[in-house]
Specification:
By secondary structure, the chain is an alpha/beta fold. It is built from 15 helices and twelve strands. The protein has two domains: 277 residues, Rossmann fold, CATH 3.40.50.150; 113 residues, no CATH class.
Length: 396
Amino acid sequence: MSLMIEAEPNVRLIEDMGSYKRITGEFWTARQRQMHSIHYAVSYRASFKPELPNYFIRRYCSDPVKDLVLDPFGGRGTTILEANILGYSGFSNDVNPLSERIAYPKCRPVTISEINKILSRINLDVDADISDYDRFAPFYHPQTYRELVALKQYLRKNRTDADRFIEMIALSRLHGHSGGFFSVYSFPQISVPSAAQARINEQRNQRPDYRPVKPRILKKAKRVLADFAPEELAQLRKVAEQNVFTCHDSRCMKSIADESIRLIVTSPPFLNKADYIQDNWIEYWFLNIETEPLRKLIVQTDDLEEWSEFMIDSLREMLRVLKSGGTAVIEVGEVRYRGKMVNLDEIIAELGCSVGFNIVEVLINYQQFTKLANCFNVDNMKKGTNTNRLVVLSKP
């Protein structure tokens, strides 16, 4: 049974699902980049907006000392960062080490003065091994590539918070669609293969021009830090001192104690909607992350049964770490599977019940696609994921 709601303009539809209600509406703004500037440091495919964890942290957390927040699929660190901004600390876990390299520096920002000091002393005009340049030639001018290799060499040996913040900012500039990126025109959210970039260059009649690395890092850092007053930056760093970043399989988060977490806000991978290896190959190169071991660790499957088995084990682990009365919010979407549209919230709700959770509700935050989605030829309500479908579970 469905009931249209007129009294609350942000609620469009309430559906009775038997043991719980599924509510469709606009629970946070559909407008882009409305939250703190630090959130937008790095584009990351298949990530959710910071408004999402903000909504649930404000709703379910009340004691910054006792209420720890966890994201088992940490991604670019949106949940842990928003928790820190609101005064809460916790855990950010992801089996992919790329996550920690993005999330940690976002939660531990440094001043522009510190960034300037580091950049001024890094010598990027040094001998560097560019024997692998052919693989990167469709993206970078030879001198830009040489500077990136030199920066990589520096960052392998220097790991202060300022160094790590510069690394994260550089990561965000590796490829994109404007002059602010190190690469010629490319996709901002995914590392396309070299051959695909060569085709883009031919279609656009473009060739990589020299783009100095340091000024682009500094310009981006200023934008990322724009919303900070000095005391706010220091306060965020203080809260983030209590954060723990782990690199466990979500099915066995062994560093997290039983019944220690108040709130989980997370989004698991959706049935192979993103290739986390191929889509980030330039990022892995820059960070010196070996990709072959990751292929055995990251779950990417087209099989709904295999995905469900993975999720039931992950949900069982979430139940273990949650306090009694704690809440887990699982953000999923709808996917086309064997010719039919499957709402993954219905599957998560069923799996959650099977491991011992209670279903509080399912919230569907309706969204229109942005211009970034249009880059991937995704039309609203036709392809891909069109809604945030949030299964809210509680531990008895």
